[in-house]
Amino acid sequence: MTANRAFQEASPSLFGFVPAEDDCTPVPPQAAPPGKTTRLPSYIADHRARLRDRFMQGGAGAMPDYELLELILFRAVPRQDMKPIARRLLDRFGDFNRVLSADPTQLAQVEGVGPAVVTELKIVEAAAQRLARSRVINRPVLTSWDALLDYCHTTMAHGAVEQFRVLYLDRKNVLIADDEQARGTVDHVPVYPREIVRRALDLNASAMILVHNHPSGDPTPSAADIDMTRQIVAAAGTMGITVHDHLIIGKSRELSFRSSGLL
Fold it and tell me: Is pTM, for the whole model, over 0.70?
């Protein structure tokens, strides 16, 4: 077996979302003086049009992170220059992926970020996770390993706290459930082997893959990680359930217990 990744989807609520409008649509009457309409300033409208054209012609690879964020935020705030907000988000969280995966309460602490911006970012995050999930769900995991790793990185690599997930497989190694067992702190997550095995029995699962992230970015396992894995393997083994692997997801790479000789 080789490296890895993980899943789950948490669809953000769309209630309260500020609908997108055409950039030059007149402001509603209550927002403008009687008898007058306000249009988007031409320099902002032109900037938005140029970004959209560049994206359609060259794709995301032709754009730095802050411009891709601008494109996303255009829908959340139809009549404002979004470059300052995009740059503040990147300054606060470090990169595009960490912006999308940031906790909503932390996003809201950034100057200029309101509910509409938070909702838009979480919609994009959910869409990315659902796309990655569609490539592995109900498919034989061991023959879709790269897709599984992509999914795990998409959902876990940029988390601010540790989370522990279990991927449950049937007798044909088809993924039948992806459970988040627990969330913890920046360097610890509580794990209960009995609960993991009980859930496997409830699902009639024949095998499982353990996955957790290291918010530090370094997927090197700790002594506690190794000990906990052995406890789960032993508990599962008594019930005839196989643990195929334990994956630790870092920021840019992952570690496989099986490939590293730890399982």
Answer: no
